[in-house]
Amino acid sequence: MATTSATQAPIAHHTANLGSISSHGPQSPIAHRAKHTLPTAHVPNRSAHYDTSLSIPVRKYLQTYGLTPPRAESYEIQKKRCLAQLALKSTDIERFLYLSTLRYNNVHLFYRLLTDHFTELTPLVYTPTVGEACQRWSEIYQQPEGMYLSFEDRGHLSNIIQNWPQAHVEITVVTDGSRILGLGDLGVGGMGIPIGKLALYTGCAGIRPEGTLPLTVDLGTGNKALLEDPLYMGSRREKVTAEEEKEFLDELMAALKDRWPDIVIQFEDWKNPFPSLERYRHDYAMFNDDIQGTGAVIMGGIIGAVKQSGVAPKDHRAVFLGSGSAGVGVAKQIVDYFVKEGLTEEEAKNCFWLVDSKGLVTSDRGDKLADHKIYFSRTDNKGEQYKTLDDVIEYVKPTIIMGLSTIGGAFTPEILQKMGKWNDRPIIFPLSNPSSKSECTFEEAISNTDGRALFASGSPFHPVTYNGKQYHPGQGNNMYVFPGIGLGTILCKAVQVTSNMIYASGEALPTMITEEEKDLALLYPGITRIRDVSARVALYVIRAAQKDNVDRLHSLRDMDDATLEEWIKDKMYDPHKETEELENELRDIVQDLSVSSPRL
Ligand SMILES: NC(=O)C1=CN([C@@H]2O[C@H](COP(=O)(O)OP(=O)(O)OC[C@H]3O[C@@H](n4cnc5c(N)ncnc54)[C@H](O)[C@@H]3O)[C@@H](O)[C@H]2O)C=CC1
Ligand SMILES: CC(=O)C(=O)O
Ligand SMILES: [Mg+2]
Q1: What is the ipTM of this complex?
Q2: CB under 8 Å to 100, separation ≥6 — which residues?
Q3: For ligand 2, atom 5: residue with the closest CA
Q4: Which overall architecture, per CATH, does domain 292-479 show?
Q5: Residues 224-264: tens digit of each pLDDT
Q6: Any note on cofactor binding (predicted)?
Q7: Is the CB of 289 under 6 A from ligand 2?
């Protein structure tokens, strides 16, 4: 983002310090005073100063001349080489590692590539490949890219956080690795998720890379295989208790805010994220992506799906397979939407049948329901318990099926065919990640409903040709909203992320769908327009923050929407400009000095 940590020093300032250059480019005092300080100063070899597009005079000035091949080349050539190298890899995990190394070595080039090839590269940086990366983290580990804080560090978190070398962190994504996608407890291997999510923060919403902090807390793991794996890089302790986790998080949250008072904190992929959300949401600019981000993004897709189905909100019957953080978060957000459409809260709530591993969630099922399930527990089942998804489907005859269960293939052809039989436009959202956990594939949804399914999945699927017609899937993934939620919160300096801000993020999505996309029954805007989508989401988030009076940058209140949206876009980090600006800035300095490096 535009809130760069370095100041734009006048040329005279650089001149005065020229004589003191004593080390190579990345450590050079001049480099530190230039606008473009190293994005990741903590990793000495990760430097835009070695970019092969820099001109010879600039290389000489930076004292990197001779350290890269002689030709100053264009970005187009760099890109061609990167894509060719990527094509040489034979597995997705190799491609993931290649891209991680590129990000480490030349952060701007990585983001140029990502933003130019979003559709192809996001699945390698994010779901599904990041899932395998997390599973194999201790095997494939190469370089530090975030912070690891352990339970053993309690009492010292504030001091340890000082080790993070970037002065201005704007946003962190924090996980304990205990529920990584639908893959279970992966311990510190979960670090792939904060790194991947924050890469999308930069790629989708233009948060400057050096303003992001991937954070993994090692609170032990219940994964026995990891504990016995000699390569496992986390502590060998069982999971700490809920009380110990709470005390640790109290300290962590205070320590983060102490060092970076404006920091936005995103919780991600925690097995039981409800207590921390309730505990911190009023005192910190924080949100839980799995409950709230997912709720908003799926509500955004459902707005279009309900319209296209031709069925009024009150007549929808939604069966949710999965009643965890995401299932309950999504159902609650759609309740809010139905209420906005005129239903009472009770009427809206009655449109939902939630299913967990024990069957339909009812108030008389005989087991003690987790707190988050109680709101949706059915009381109209007349003592009958429905143990399987098939039973529930037959009982409810739904118009909507949502999968947030981690059970790949749970939406069987029989279930999909019934959905096609009962509905003109069945709404089918298999949302579990990664692809292997998706409750059905796009092809299955299309072929079992004669192409009539209104579809969105958590992980991406390719278009499908059925009976000679091409169908395009939607991706109902929180990546459509969390970058904009974070961006909006940062830009308006909100002190909280309110429920209205979350709701607004979902409402923003349908406003970005083109007429052409509507004609294709698409429920989400094209992923290639994700930067514009994130700017629109940020606009909606800022407006909601203003209404809730939690914003602190009041000057934004006076801007009309179009002006504010442009202002937001202007604040976004643009990787395409970075290297060029570095080149231009330093070339100006070189010309002004009329000298090249003191070494030549
Ligand atoms: N598309 C998206 O943007 C998002 C997708 N997700 C995905 O949703 C899935 C669930 O995530 P969370 O809700 O956070 O996990 P969770 O662990 O909180 O909930 C999982 C739920 O699935 C239920 N379940 C497990 N086995 C079952 C079975 N055999 N039959 C019926 N229900 C079963 C559990 O009882 C629980 O209610 C994950 O795969 C995750 O990747 C989560 C967040 C965002
Ligand atoms: C997308 C996401 O946040 C998840 O699958 O957990
Ligand atoms: Mg998640």
Answers
A1: 0.99
A2: 142, 143, 145, 195
A3: 181
A4: 3-Layer(aba) Sandwich (3.40)
A5: 999 999 999 999 999 999 999 999 999 999 999 999 999 99
A6: Divalent metal cations. Prefers magnesium or manganese.
A7: yes
